[in-house]
Amino acid sequence: MTTSRSPLMMTAALLFLLGTGCKPLFDIRKAMYDQPKFEPLEKTDFFGDSRSARPLIEGTVAQGQLRLNSHLYEGVELIDGDYRSAQTYPFEITMEDLERGQEMYNIHCSVCHGLSGHGNGMVVQRGYAKAPGFHRDALRQAPPGYFYGVIMNGFGKNMMPYYHQIPVEDRWRIIAYIKTLQRSQFAQVEDLEAVDALAPAEAVEHESPEHAHEHH
Amino acid sequence: MSSQLFTPKHNTLARLTLLLFVGGAAGTLGLLDLIHRSPYVRYTKVRREQPVPFSHKHHVNMGIDCRYCHTSVEKSSFANIPPTQTCMNCHNIMWKESDMLEPVRESWRTGKSLEWTRVHDLPDFVYFNHSIHVNNGIGCATCHGRVDQMPLTWREEPLFMKWCLECHRDPAEFVRPDDKIYDMAYDPQELSREEREALVDAYGIDTSNHRMTNCSICHR
User: Fold this and answer.
1) How far is CA A159 from CA A42, A102, A171, in A?
2) A117 in any annotated domain
3) Which domain holds residue A115?
4) Angle at the Cα of A138 (from A135 to A142), degrees rounded to 5?
5) Is B124 touching A (CB cutoff 8 A)?
6) Which of A44, A123, A159 to mutate to test the interface with B (most CBs of B within 10 A)?
7) Do the chains contact at B81 and A35, CB–CB below 8 Å?
8) Considering CB atoms only, which of B62, B80, B113 is closest to A126?
9) Is A73 a member of any domain?
10) Which chain B residues are closer than 8 Å to A161 by Cβ?
């Protein structure tokens, strides 16, 4: 009967359709938005500790993660039949490595040890225990492997291990940069001449104030 | 009662009914769309409650780089939420009596994870990779806003596809030099359009053949 298609009935029908139609529509949308897969660190109800990222079973070695190179990964070398702190770097340090080392040092170390390695970083200024500076004699003599050990194990009761924050190669680059910082505090005039020899164009800039100084 | 059911005055009524019907439907749709885009649904600029009221503002302004905690941003799709140990690097001494930080110390003692509220969650049908962005001239602040000014973190952008495409269509508007990626205050517009176009070339961002807006780039 055509008379039954009054606006009121039409509206009622539309509302009914919307009401029943929308719920599955929203459910589908939600199901696509949040699919049954885990994004990194996503929560799960399946395991008691709520972690979808499962901790490795002790002793597990994943493919490609067998770390036999004790120089690179542990910072030790076989010296006189005994494993001691490595005296050298496991790979050749280039200028790019040093720059990366500087970047990583400024991110991870400078907060306590200070940008110039004097142990007066911002966190120390805010009340953390005084961090050692790198310019004392014992640390200037310490081999790269010693610093690697500190990054791996932490130091004393204040400094936590940093291996989970800094990738392996970057640890060595940081050490190379620390060594550079140490050298910078005890730079000799001859070092400057060596730098000038490397970059003759910049050497001119170095010379002029030096000559000016002589005239005073 | 006259046999004429509709008089001229019903013309007005009919027009009004039509208008209300069409306008009402359009209005309802418009309203739904507004709600859908509103901060109420998208959480844009809405500070989120967290188990510990962590302030990015406080930590960044102290001179801590993004990568101190978000360690995997350069190498991985996921920028990383730091483990409790990263907090304890400083908070084993700093504020170690603070009630506010008790959940952190509890997590450290028991090994139970802190359950942070996620602020940016893309739909699972979108692939997003942090490393490809930070290694190709897109700074943190471009998408995350001035996190260094957020006491409690909020979502700066609604994360609509349209918004992603703005940059994928014309990356030259948004790229910045390599050493400014983690500089929150840097504005890409400091460089001229030509300089930014040169940067796009230098990064090797290939916008030819709609490559950057290909569906499969993000929906893979």
Assistant:
1) 30, 20, 16
2) yes
3) 93-189
4) 95
5) yes
6) A123
7) no
8) B62
9) no
10) 85
